[in-house]
Amino acid sequence: MKKLVCLVLAIVMLVAMAACASAEFKFERKIDLVCPWGVGGGADSTLRPMASLLQDILGVPVEVVNVEGGSGVNGVEHTYKQPADGYTFMLGTQSLYIQDMLGNTSMDFKNEFECVDVLVHSINAIVASKLSMEKFGVTNWAELQAYIAEHPFEVSVAMLTATGVDGASLAQATEGLMLMEIPYSSGSDANSALVGGHCDLYVCGWDDIAGLIESGDIVPILALCENRMSIAPDMQCSVENGIDSVMGPWRGIFAKKGTPQEAIDALVAAIEQAKQSDTWKEFTHNAAYDERPIPAPGEETVAFCQSEYKDLHDYMVEQGTLVKDYEDLK
Amino acid sequence: MFELIINILLFIFLGFTFFTHVLEAAVPQKVALNPYVLQPDVWPKTIIVLLEICLIINIIKIIKKNKGNPDFSLAAFGKSIPEFLKGKVFRGIVIMVAASLLLETLGFMVTSVLVLFSYGMLLGEKKLPRLAIASVCITLVLYIIFNGMLSVNLPRGTIGFLRSFALWMESVIGAVKSIF
Amino acid sequence: MSMGELLASGLAAVFNPGMFLMVLLAIVLGTIFGALPGVSATMAVALGLTFTYTMEPIPAIVFLTAIYCSSITGGSITAILFKIPGVPSSAPTTFDGYPMAQRGEAGKALGVALLASAIGGLISAVAMFLLSQPLTKAALSFGPSDLFAVTFMGLSILTCLDSDHILTCIISGLLGLLLACVGQDKMYAVQRLTFGSRNLLAGIDMIPVLIGLFAVTEVFKQTDPKKKRISAEDGVTGGKVNTKMPSLKEIWSIKWTMLRCSVVGTVVGILPGAGATIASFMCYTMETKLSKYPEKFGTGIIDGIAASEASNNAATGGAMVPLLSLGIPGGNAAAVMMSALTLKGVQLGPLLLTNQPTYLSATFTTMIVTNILMVIVAMGIAKVFAQILAIPYSYLGPIILMLALIGTYGDQMSATSVQIMVLAGVLGLIVRACHLNSAAIVLGLVLGSMCEQNFSRGYLMSKANVVAMFSPVQHPIAFVLIIVCIVLLVSPIVMPLFKKKKA
Fold first, then answer.
1. Choosing among B1, B7, B43, which should be mutated to test the C contact, i.e. which has the most C CBs within 10 A?
2. Which of A8, A64, A166, C247 has its CA 20 to 30 A from that of A122?
3. Would you state the pLDDT for residue C243?
């Protein structure tokens, strides 16, 4: 009897597999990957290596289309206008969620787009100018914290999206501390300000400053994540200090609602294959993207996106900037 | 007269903007409450105030300069309007406005042929068949250079068959490219 | 490694037949890319990147650097021939270049532009080679209030752009500044002046406005049959294009202009974010003031072209200094260069000199070699391009419009920017009728957000104390620059009073 059950099961599985294989989607022409940010930026430089890997795997041209402007909204609108035929996908980050809840997108982004696979999940870090550390006479996070507490509004901190992801991230990490927040609109301006000693601290993704840390002009202070980073084992992390701030910039591939599931599955399968390649592993290692686990495609990603939405939603409610509210976030 | 009217319209428009449209969304709490922040409305408002001052001086200057000028009247300006609307420049503007509005619907190739042909006519080209052929050829050359060789993604159009045609062109160019 | 060894290793890397051929190829590609509207230097490097995937690091660096340098120069070709400045920094090139091309002296205008570009590029490359470290240090000492003062100085030039219409110039500049405020503000992402339109959320980009105000307006203007227009049958220049190059004597006459502007361009280009636009506008007005015949500027003289091109090329070269020595790009195109070089395993930043000196010297040497070779190669390409002017205007006019459309669409991939471009074209007509100044609008638009952001940051850092922002003790650079600005702004108003008194 047991044998029979096994046999039946085996046959069923074989048939199921064969069915899957026949339903497998085959891309027949060029795939556009829309990047809502400019050439040479962080998002773009993540997407381009992935695009060339996908091109090799799928056998059709995979082109990165940069549609920048409006904090990513232009790219979203562009993608939204394309038919959901499985030949247009978009790179997205949680900052698009903020634009959505600010009411800046013409559609309900949360319902109209779905993140199908997360490519990288970076770590936000608080770093300091070497000059400022010497001026304050501090060497680590605890001393710095004490210094800030004694000198309200004396310590300046640069960040890129002051009212967005970086702002939320910093607010979680430095609750109760009075910092002078200085918004910057480009990473290179912020870097120069830090190296020149015009700004004391900087909240940013690790990938933005890796080079300057190596040269010693910028000192890593606190990684906002669960575990210490292997690339900088001396830097403390937020969780070990009892700080509940682990939000970091991530980038994923988004599909418009209505895209054929087979096309999504085929793309995700190709992305997962590309992630195993040496080229991608080397790329993620160089930018320290391999320091924390990435949610697996499917339910894990859905849950992850929902929790990111929730965190940003709460921050925006606190700041009084929420315009569009979703039932399931209240 | 035209200059005066533009200056006055601009003055009124900026005044209206100053009171109603400088800020169009809520300022985040931490920004609004921080005493050291230059609030987001200060800079544009300062510019508007400076502009209004300059505009008043300019309006006075224009009126002074044209004192006793018989052409400087509303009636004369009124007469020049229909003249402008009949003129070629106005038709040129209409062509370009139409092109910019139809670009995404019709796609690059159709828009380009239409613009090249109609504007060529407007500029006085008499040999229409030659112009028509040239319009198609120029469009193809532009399309191949920019879309094919330089990866500038030109709009495909949203009407079904135009979109399919653009996709077909892309696949042809892709096939030619893969040979090299 | 000593300076001599560095130079030797750079020369060894570049001077072999294969590499030489590659530089030539890169120059041809770069110049053509740069000359096509809609392909910015940024895109040219991104396009060039695809060729380098399989290359070794040094050839890749050489290839990309050559593309970068030559594409910036190529941009001046369309500015002169069609009045389409590909980047705001070539806007002043159109002031004198376009009238010259209209007169049938396209060859001379292009020749001067290329030569001036090459000299600007050379001087900045040499400066970079010799003074990279101290220059970087100097650039870093510029804080927000100093940077504000620099941009404000760029704006103060407004009063000198057209000394007969100072008031309308100021109005134009302020309008540009106001246009720069539209959309989500760059500091706190608060929506401003969008009038409820989602299309304006991204703000008003400079490229559509620039192309609209210059190129589209020009075609509209030529459409008017009452204006003396080039007849439809003949080309712009009566069917013939004079590709005669400038004579040695003419070139010799502008030697000081080229030198001065190259030096100023290099210095301004090093400042983080300040860039080529300020440099070219600043040098153009500086030369107007210094010239013995200021009234001729804007009518088509080679001095104007030389000023603009020498300075903007020097500035883009200058932007490579902070890029190489700190890993901080001084502009958009430099940012793409950075990601391209990083992909090739170049460790940009202070460690470059100690860890990978050959890469550093290869970059310097390529810049120098490219700028020398470019004069010859680009001149040939420019001659071919100049022939385009022989096409009858009933064909050329629409082609210019389509190039403008592609250039705008390709920049942001949005029909909104094409609409903005057409509106800017109409605005250009109004601007002319009202004696306003298009260049001033562009200047305001380009510098507006930088000006506001740096002011806002300086204001925060000095805890809302404007006087402290410019105090001679804490911010000596800002203090001096602001004094210069005040002089620039006040002098056109006060000077006539003095003259009257004397009389």
1. B43
2. A64
3. 61
Matching residue, tokens 């396209």? C106
Q: Which positions 62-121 of B are in contact with A (Cβ < 8 Å)? A: 104
Percent of chain A at pLDDT > 70 equals 92
A173-191 pLDDT per residue, tens? 888 888 899 999 878 788 8
- Chain A residue numbers touching B158 (CB-CB < 8 A): 81
Q: Is A204 exposed, middle or buried (0-12, 13-18, 19+ CB in 10 A)?
A: buried
Task: Give SS3 for C400.
Answer: helix
Identify any residues that bridge with C317 across adjacent strands, giving them in sequence order: none
Asked if C38 contacts C211 with a C-beta cutoff of 8 angstroms, the reply is no
Identify which of A30, A162, A323 has the shortest CB distance to residue B174: A30
Each residue of B56-109: pLDDT tens digit? 999 999 999 888 887 778 888 888 888 888 889 999 999 999 999 999 999 999
CB contact under 8 Å between C190 and B40, yes or no, is: yes
Segment of B154-158, C230-234, C417-421 carrying the highest mean pLDDT = C417-421
The verdict on pTM exceeding 0.80 is: yes
Partner C, chain A 237-266, Cβ-Cβ below 8 Å: none
Contacts 24+ apart (CB under 8 A), B64-72: B66/B1, B66/B4, B71/B1, B72/B1
ipTM of this complex:
0.92
Q: Report the alpha-carbon distance of residue C442 to residue C457 in Å, rounded.
A: 24
Read off the tokens for C16.
Answer: 């072999």
Question: Which residue of chain B comes nearest to A81, CA vs CA?
Answer: B158
A 144-163 residues inside an 8 A Cβ radius of C: 153, 156, 161-163
For residue B30, the chain A residues in CB contact (below 8 A) are 163, 167, 171, 181, 319
Which pLDDT score, from 0 to 100, does residue B47 have?
Answer: 95
The dotted CATH code for A124-241 is 3.40.190.10
Could you read off the pLDDT of A23-57 as tens digits, one per residue? 567 888 889 999 998 877 788 888 988 998 999 99
**Considering only CB atoms, which chain A residues are within 8 Å of C347?**
211, 214
What residues of B are in contact with residue A181 (Cβ under 8 Å)?
30, 34
Best CA proximity match to A98, nearest among A113, A112, A114, A109: A109
Token pair belonging to C284: 């153009």
Which DSSP state fits B87? S
DSSP state of B23: B
Residue C229 has pLDDT above 70, yes or no: no
Residue A279 CB neighbours (<10 A)? 13
Q: Which amino acid is at C437?
A: N
Which CATH superfamily is A30-121+249-329 part of?
A: Bordetella uptake gene, domain 1 (3.40.190.150)
